Amino acid sequence: MAKFVKFTKLRSSTDSTFWAKFVELKIDKFKLDEKSVNLWGNYSLQSLNENNNNPLVLDFTSFNEDLEILNNNSSVLCFGHMINTNTFEAFRQINPEQFINSMGKDIINNIQDGTVLQNPWKLSLFLVLAYSDLKKYKFYYWVAHPTPLKLPEMYYQESPQSINEEFTARQVEDLCQHFLQLDSRTKSYFTVSISKEGKLSIIDLATGVETINAREKQSQEYSEIYFAFYDPCTTSNPGWPLRNLLCLLCWHCPIYYFSKIIKFISIRGNKAQKSIVFKLKTKEYENYKDIRDALFMSHLVGWESNSNDKLGPTIVNLSDTMDPAKLSDRAINLNLKLMKWRLAPDLDLEKICNLKCLLLGAGTLGCSVARVLLGWGVNNITFVDSSNVSHSNTVRQSLYSHQDAVKHKYKAYAAKDALLNIRPSINAEGVVLHIPMPGHVVGKSMLDSTKQSLEKLEELVENNDVVFLLLDSREARWLPTVLCAAKNKIAINAALGFDSYTVQRHGTRNFTSPASPDLDARNPRGMDLGCYFCNDVTQPGNSQTDRTLDQQCTVSRPGLSQIAAGLAVELLVALLQHSQGIEAEALVGNSRDNISPSDTELVGLLGCIPHTIRGSLWNYDTQLTITHRFTSCTACSVPIIAEYKNRGLSFVLDACNIPNYLEKLSGLEQILKRPDLDELCYALDSISDEDEDDGNDVIP
Amino acid sequence: MAKFVKFTKLRSSTDSTFWAKFVELKIDKFKLDEKSVNLWGNYSLQSLNENNNNPLVLDFTSFNEDLEILNNNSSVLCFGHMINTNTFEAFRQINPEQFINSMGKDIINNIQDGTVLQNPWKLSLFLVLAYSDLKKYKFYYWVAHPTPLKLPEMYYQESPQSINEEFTARQVEDLCQHFLQLDSRTKSYFTVSISKEGKLSIIDLATGVETINAREKQSQEYSEIYFAFYDPCTTSNPGWPLRNLLCLLCWHCPIYYFSKIIKFISIRGNKAQKSIVFKLKTKEYENYKDIRDALFMSHLVGWESNSNDKLGPTIVNLSDTMDPAKLSDRAINLNLKLMKWRLAPDLDLEKICNLKCLLLGAGTLGCSVARVLLGWGVNNITFVDSSNVSHSNTVRQSLYSHQDAVKHKYKAYAAKDALLNIRPSINAEGVVLHIPMPGHVVGKSMLDSTKQSLEKLEELVENNDVVFLLLDSREARWLPTVLCAAKNKIAINAALGFDSYTVQRHGTRNFTSPASPDLDARNPRGMDLGCYFCNDVTQPGNSQTDRTLDQQCTVSRPGLSQIAAGLAVELLVALLQHSQGIEAEALVGNSRDNISPSDTELVGLLGCIPHTIRGSLWNYDTQLTITHRFTSCTACSVPIIAEYKNRGLSFVLDACNIPNYLEKLSGLEQILKRPDLDELCYALDSISDEDEDDGNDVIP
Fold first, then answer.
1. What integer best gives the mean pLDDT of chain B?
2. What residues does the Ubiquitin-like modifier-activating enzyme Atg7 N-terminal domain cover (chains A, B) (predicted)?
3. Which letter does DSSP use for residue A527 in this model?
């Protein structure tokens, strides 16, 4: 009795690039979608391993829908589907038998309707059932190569022979050449014909089957026909792919299949010399049609064993092997991209990540603002500060450690280093720079350094998109306010009192065709909103002189800076995601409960954009207020900006050194002399700032 | 012509303990007070340095008002005053001449009214003018030893002689003995009398002056009188203290002063052997009274030179020399104590610093909460968390670095280490512990570990004052809520949605005499407030099963956690500083604008204490809402707590393993069957939680 044929099972292998690419697609494209994903696996022809099966390799190219670029001589392609469940629970609850039967039924259909005759790659199919833990980079997956269970037993009619015994050297050489010229997708199954003259040629499966069927009818043998398949297996048995080829022959040439000796070539590797010829035959059956029907109605089988030789999923943990810095970047983006899955699909994360942020002040607010920017994935952060880390800073300024205070590091540098310690790929910079301030007289000895500071500050404002004003005095905010207005940059201002805070966006400025602000609009546009100085009736002066210790330090309830910093960054991000951007209409307090989401002038993707948020920890209230642009503002009005643009450094020096210079220049001095000042002050729409950190006088 | 006398100037030296003590007093006691501070300086008798003057030493004992403990044989005490200005500007603007004249005028008065005759230490006085930069530990100070400018010139009648030449060995020995027995305050000036028999005795200044004046009248010399003074100077000249002694003699025995040779003993060191005898005399004046008047009306002089031999302040920078860990502690306290100077004088910082806080969950909220607690100077923080730092955590969880993620450290340990890196003296702990949860079935294999977890958690809740619920699922908060209710601990709860947050304090529970909550109170007391579960109509279950990635992670706008954490800690601190503590009446939203500060049931030192704060980043609104205590709550109701107290572990296991166990036990199941459920739900006063991080169903 002849020996019956066993089929060596297939094995697959996933490259880490496969999962990396999948993570990317899952987060950016598939999101919550659990639909089947098409894949291309490949068997390498080059690196055939003697001891093991040549595995079906899945890598980052597996997701490529464009097959042309994958058509190369060095591999055999195999088509497949992957289902990735969103939860581990769903993964566990999938019944493997049902899964392979429903997902693999294409194989049966493609055989029966003849599709595979023209598209031989459809005769094999692999299935991946997976669950990916994207937080931990842990992947659970299980691969199947579906094939009908009830394949009739086949028997060896001769012992398997090397191709070199069956064919002449010339024929082997031709086979090799022709095979390599085949399309990667058609290398998996084809027919080899040997003419009477001994000429070897490759014909497709359809022609092979036709030839066989014709020959059966005419009973004449004008050529030898061999059915060939790429065989990733290296044992003396034929590999799993032969099963589906047998099914095809059983369906399309049943008489031949159930009565004749069929010759197969198992193509192994790229040289073909190692290929094997199998001559096989079924048992004789009384009613072969029953056998055939049973075959095509049987369940599908073909789940791979895992590395423990058990039927079950393989677990890949890539958190250790992936480059930590890249892992970190990917993980950070993951959290952000999750927002797009369900909550804010239209969120433009690129806009946020690519933002260049300049943080003036690396104290309590500066550190907290940087941390929220980190959370939003902002890649470019520059700190400007002239002071050093002191021991009283570390518990409130969240980027500094005890060692920074011991080493008395510059805050700007310590803050930069802290960001790099959190996210190595971030583009962070620290600049030690003293900002020139009105009322802080610049003597001769300081001329050079003041010039350099101004130039550097101008360069920094120019090169950034957003400027955060997080400084510890009112006058330190003056020059940055001038520069932001002159260069039309987004300016976000935050200031702390003891138990209250103010967070504000500056309005935009148009110096080419300035108009008076529209004071009547219920929700003023960006161009009509004020800056930090628009409700002042004196120019900023030296507030550091003659201040006691508790006035020098921002004495505030420690939770306050986190709250204000959180609001400052969220205000910025909401503004960036608003269709009108910085020109967005400002939400005011009393209209807060009656917002129509369809009012796109007011409502952006992330909600409304107030001008000024004032909050208190005393009664947990938040007020949204408005200050209008002031045409005699000492920081952002037309005469000020014109003079700055004209005279640069000498303007700044005059502002620092000459008392009331800015009041004169802006026209504020004239206004203060007017008899109707009280009414005017009322019109200025000002709100008491008495609780703020700098304690300067403003109109009550 | 005889040589006229030059006086060697004095020198002082401040020990670092002087400034450390001053910083303490300034922050805790003096605060903004700029009034003069009394000081005791001392000259050491032991360590007389040959080359230099023996400096007037100021150290931490200088502030001691209780002189007795300072009365020792090893030093000579000197009295003084210090003025410390609050600002550098004020320091700079003080005119030194005016300062010494006004502050030193006591010297003149004390001489003229005879006070110094009884209290010789009042004959010398030192003045310190200082400005202390408490942020940088930099001290500017300038010391003066006031004495009238127009002291008549004195001339040596003999060359200065060693005491050993003037006195017998026995007399020297006696002088030495007597001197050492003098009070530290009277060592500075006294009289030495030698009887006809050669016996040396020490008499006070008053007796000395009396003796001299009597002798002038009676013209008989029955004993030798020497005026003695402790002389810190080591030159051959007499030291500065002699000047005021001369003034005293000029005033109280003018005839003697202007006509006779006066003998002085300059006492040097503790052995007296090195002391010097000076015999001095003034010029002859025609009208000595004019000279005397001029002397007593003249300006005062006596400012020390600094180390550059210039008249000007000395700068001491102690930031480098002080122990960094202690510096850090002092600096941290400084920031806090500044609040008491002006803004909240009654703030009880001890209560906050000594607080023991248990943070359940060391994720985004846990890290931010810990940072605000650090800012408040809280000394005892324990983290409980069972997970590890992953790469997606670092940019949002503000205690972790990239390296923590690479090393995959347990969050509880990494968080503890981070706190120690910020404040080395903090008492921080990390506990890796998995909290048993309803719906998460405990199998046999987990029994032991569940038992241990429960015991550890019970111990932790017991040993802490406050429990923060910062966990990532609703069911994880159940057991901590039960434990806090059973042990009556302060529980603060925070939860995040995408752009909204909830911060809440749990109500208190009284299980000895439970009453129905008063639903009518406008501002319910702590005992009538609900817990996190009081508005649920199902028991907490396994919400982790079958959740997609974006549901597993808290997908929230990054600023949100900082805001919620800031509010959670500030709510706690406000509560601690409220006279009613955790029983304080809850502020509700609609009464926020009409708060009477005198309503002490409602308003605490740091404002009002709501029950639940709900905020949104969409329209920047904050709502203050109330949930009443629910008598069938699945976490804090009487039947639940009674069963927990009765059965401990087996109760917890039943809660984890038996579906609906808690609903049955609490009576909730019965209520849900009632036909009037809809009305009941309305009465439960619930608010939609649909935006919260755990997504469990609650009554809308």
1. 87
2. 5-322
3. G
Q: Determine the residue of chain A that is closest to B84 in CA distance.
A: A548
DSSP string, A282-309: EPP-S-HHHHHHHHHHSPEEEEPB-TTS
Q: Are B143 and B100 in contact (CB under 8 A)?
A: no
Is A566 in the B-facing interface, judged by CB distances under 8 Å?
A: yes
B471 band by pLDDT with thresholds 50, 70 and 90:
very high
Chain A 24-83, residues with CB within 8 Å of chain B CB atoms? 32
> Residue A101 has which token pair?
């039967």
B392 touching chain A per CB within 8 A? yes
Residue type, A429: E
- Annotated active-site residue in A78, A253, A553, A636: A553
ipTM: 0.76
Model's pTM, two decimal places? 0.76
In this structure, which amino acid lies at residue B485? A
Residues 6+ apart with CB under 8 A from A512: none
The most confident of the ranges A219-223, B339-343, B561-565 is B561-565
Longest CA–CA span in chain B (Å) reads: 122
CA distance to partner chain B, nearest, from residue A467 (Å) = 18
Which residue in the set A398, A401, A563 is minimally distant from B563, CB to CB?
A: A563
| A392, A562, A587 ranked by CB distance to B562: nearest | A562
In the predicted structure, residue B694 carries a pLDDT above the cut 80 = no
Chain-centroid distance, C-alpha B307: 32
Taking only the tens place, the pLDDT of each residue in A194-248 is 988 889 999 999 999 998 888 877 755 668 899 999 999 888 899 999 999 999 9
Does residue A588 or residue A683 have the better pLDDT?
A: A588
Contact B395 A375 (CB under 8 A): yes
Lookup: tokens for A382: 């520059």
- Facing residue for A32 by CB, picked from B332, B548, B595: B548
Q: Kindly report the nearest CA distance between residue A573 and chain B, in angstroms.
A: 10
Please give the residue of chain B at the shortest CA–CA distance from A399. Answer: B398
Task: Indicate if the pLDDT at residue A293 is higher than 70.
Answer: yes
- What is the β-pairing status of strands B37-44 and B75-85? antiparallel
Nearest CB to B394: which of A134, A422, A560?
A422
The token duo for B454 is 């429960």
Residue at A585: amino acid letter: E
Can you read off the two tokens belonging to residue B57?
């030493």
Mark which residues 316-375 of A lie under 8 Å from B by CB. Answer: 319, 324-325, 327-328, 330-332, 334-335, 338-339, 341-344, 368, 371-372, 374-375
Residue B432: its pLDDT value, please? Answer: 97
b/e map A616-650, b = 16+ CB within 10 Å: bbbbbbbbbbbbbbbbbbbbbbbbbbebbeeeebe
User: Which residue type sits at B260?
Assistant: K
> Which one, of A614, A678, A44, A604, lies nearest residue A348 by Cα?
A604
Q: CA A413 to CA B3: how far, in whole Å?
A: 64
Q: Is B590 on the interface with A (CB under 8 A)?
A: no
Strand partners, A147: A301
- Closest to A342 (Cα-Cα) out of A100, A554, A617, A27: A27
Q: What is the C-alpha to C-alpha distance for residues A430 and A404, in angstroms, rounded to an integer?
A: 15
Tell me the C-alpha to C-alpha distance, in Å, between residue A336 and each of A333, B397, B407, B494, B582: 5, 14, 23, 21, 38
Active site residues of B: 553
From residue B527, give the alpha-carbon distance in Å to each of A454, B422, B516.
60, 38, 10
Taking contacts as CB-CB distances below 8 angstroms, the residues of chain A near B140 are none
Nearest CA in chain B to A132: B549
B85-101: string of b/e by CB count within 10 Å (b at 16+)? bbbbebbeeeebeebbb
A2 Cβ under 8 Å from any chain B Cβ? no
Contact A372 B562 (CB under 8 A): yes
